[in-house]
Write a structure and sequence with these properties.
By secondary structure, the chain is an alpha+beta fold. The chain is globular and about 45 Å long. A four-stranded mixed sheet has the order 2-1-3-4. β3 and β4 form a beta hairpin. α4 packs antiparallel against α5, α4 runs parallel beside α7 and α5 packs across α9. The termini are far apart. Helix content is about 55%, strand content about 5%. The chain binds glutathione (GSH). The site of glutathione (GSH) has 11 residues, from loops.
């Protein structure tokens, strides 16, 4: 039995890293991870990350034998397999639902990060900002309509990722007031947020 640790290029702010960390907490694998604070910025490729991932993105996991895995969904599925967990339903409708929720949560994160970059430019594109806001509101409306299914389904990579996207809305887009737009989703999120895995990984500045 090896207790060698895997290196995770990590940051306390990245919602994609948070996905991996929530899975690690849920699967009991946190002690197996050595967290290495790695700064990833689109305009500044980081050689320390690029040694393991040419895309210079976090999260990147380096396994005990030195082989690296990325991106977040691949790392999450690897951890789930390692712990024989239930975060990736193996087959049937439960699998498609989990992967679909994952895709929606990840897609929402992708657009929120682009939106944040755009709004920090000196002259943000009004058309882009409007498109980001419409897609965010439409995603929240769809998820609000599916809140009962989110409550009923066992915790999967789908709910984990949606939780990270909603947490990112709280962190970077608090003025949107998303809870008023999706009150049933907000009720579900309140139950998710109290899980130790979410509490331990809430984004922090610095
Ligand atoms: N699809 C990737 C996205 C990861 C990602 O974009 N991470 C950000 C930090 S939140 C990053 O590394 N940005 C640096 C860059 O885009 O060069 C994943 O799921 O892991």
């Amino acid at each position: 039995m090896t207790d060698a640790r895997m290196k995770l290029h990590w940051s306390p702010k990245s919602p994609y890293v948070r996905k991996v960390m929530i899975c690690a907490h849920e699967l009991g694998l946190v002690p197996r991870l050595e967290l290495v604070r790695s700064v990833a910025a689109m305009s500044k490729p980081n050689p320390a990350i690029m040694a393991d991932n040419p895309l210079s993105k976090i999260p990147t996991l380096v396994r005990e034998d030195g082989r690296a895995l990325f991106d977040s969904i691949v790392i999450c599925e690897y951890l789930n397999a390692m712990a024989a967990g239930a975060l990736f339903p193996p087959q049937g409708e439960a699998r498609w639902q989990a992967l679909r929720w994952h895709a929606l949560g990840d897609g929402l994160l992708d657009l929120l990060i682009l939106w944040r970059n755009e709004r920090e430019r000196e002259h943000p594109s009004a058309a882009l900002v409007d498109a980001f806001e419409r897609k965010t509101r439409a995603s929240l409306a769809l998820l609000d309509a599916e809140a009962a299914s989110l409550v009923d389904a066992p915790l999967s990579i789908g709910q984990v990722t949606l939780g990270c996207a909603l947490g990112y809305l709280d962190y970077r887009f608090d003025t949107l007031g998303w809870r008023a737009l999706a009150p049933r989703l907000a009720d579900w999120f309140a139950t998710l947020q109290v899980r130790p895995s979410f509490q331990a990984t809430a984004p922090v500045d610095g």
